[in-house]
Specification:
By secondary structure, the chain is mainly alpha-helical. The protein contains 3 helices and no strands. The chain has a domain of 48 residues.
Length: 80
């Protein structure tokens, strides 16, 4: 996989914490951030696929025998 360098500005406190986390995990800051960004991208792609799949299911929802009309009036459902 081809890589490209970027410049990233972080607050010093956050950078210190990230360096500590990376050291504990025996990895680099770059690798740590790459892994987290890959997770974020995968989550976004998964969400988009799930959304498309479910919208398709809604478009082809089974007929529940109502013909698209409610047989009960709203007022009857909310009587007290």
């Amino acid at each position: 996989m081809e890589t490209q360098n970027i410049t990233l500005a972080l607050p010093r406190r956050v950078l210190r914490q990230i360096k500590t986390i990376a050291a504990r995990r025996h990895t680099s800051v770059s690798r740590l951030l790459t892994e987290q960004l890959e997770v974020m991208v995968a989550n976004e792609q998964g969400y988009a696929q799930a959304r498309t799949r479910h919208l398709t299911l809604l478009d082809h929802a089974p007929d529940l025998g109502t013909g698209g009309r409610s047989r009960v009036k709203r007022e009857a459902l909310h009587e007290r």
